[in-house]
Amino acid sequence: MLWSQILLERSHVGKWVRDSLSKIIANRPEDPIQFLASYFESIREKGNRVVRAHQVLVLTHHSRLAFEDNVATAYQILSTPSSSKHSFGLTGSAYKELLRTILRFVPETIEDDVMKKISPRDHEFIPLDVFHHGILTAFVLKDFLQQSEGLHACLDSQSNGQVPQILCEAVLQELKESVTTTSTEPISILQAGARLNEAQILGCLEEAETEAKSSLTGSMSSDEFIRHASDIFLEKVKPIR
Predict the structure, then answer these.
(1) pTM
(2) C-alpha to C-alpha distances, 47 to 35, 42, 94, 140, 218, nearest whole angstrom
(3) Which InterPro entries match (predicted)?
(4) Cα separation of 140 and 2, whole Å?
(5) Which residue in 21, 83, 1, 2 sits closest to 49, CA to CA?
(6) How would you class 172 by CB atoms within 10 Å of its CB: exposed for 0-12, middle for 13-18, buried for 19 or more?
(7) Could you tell me which of 90, 93, 180 has the C-alpha nearest to residue 129?
(8) How far apart are CA 117 and CA 35, in angstroms?
(9) CB atoms inside a 10 Å sphere around CB 204
């Protein structure tokens, strides 16, 4: 064996390369270079298990089949004890830290509300199914809020960040009715929001505009609209206790 090969084996570089190629094949990322950068970043962050778990979870979108494997890997990372003094298993404190890492760009009030539904007590041990439910809920919520922001932008014909309140309420009601008919699975809630088609939106807008002409109405900002949309989402989320 060549010295260079021996060096690669001893430094684990060869294993990392093989593992990274396996991950690319499994996840099929749109941007392989960025994917590799994130993967090797997760290896570098050995000292922080929450960071490593988060890096694994963001390797692929939650709608991809490979996400299920990544959730299991993240659970394993957090469940493995950092020393012989600790027992195997994931505690609520580490789990909540990971959830807040995923939700760090979500408005604080919305983050607090979702955490009340899906976060456990610090001392509790978290089984894989509870972990999966919470992690998926957090990622789906982020997508749902992006959808909601896009809906408000579509209504903002003046491009000033404000939309007549009556129009917003009409679309939010349509969104609520669409979500109400779904199961409590996070993906189902997201799909219900995505199924709001152009005809449905135009129909409720025409009715709202007719009513708006005959009455005074205020306006609603994007932040307010997203807040109301998040309430609709959270009503359907199954609490863990």
Answers:
(1) 0.74
(2) 21, 10, 14, 28, 52
(3) DD_TPGS1 (IPR047502), TPGS1 (IPR039235), TPGS1_C (IPR057632)
(4) 49
(5) 83
(6) buried
(7) 90
(8) 31
(9) 20
- How many Å apart are CA 228 and CA 12, to the nearest integer? 50
pLDDT in 10s for each residue of the chain, 241 residues: 444 444 334 434 455 566 666 666 766 777 777 766 666 665 554 458 899 999 999 988 998 888 999 999 999 999 987 655 555 678 888 999 999 999 999 999 999 999 999 988 888 899 999 999 999 999 999 999 998 898 888 888 788 988 888 888 888 988 888 777 666 677 767 666 666 555 556 666 666 566 555 555 688 999 999 999 999 999 988 887 7
57 Cβ partners below 8 Å, 6+ apart? Answer: 67, 70, 71, 74, 102, 135, 139
Distance CA 207, CA 115 (A): 37
Output phi, psi for 219, to 5 deg.
-130, 165
| Tokens representing residue 200 in the block | 């449905």
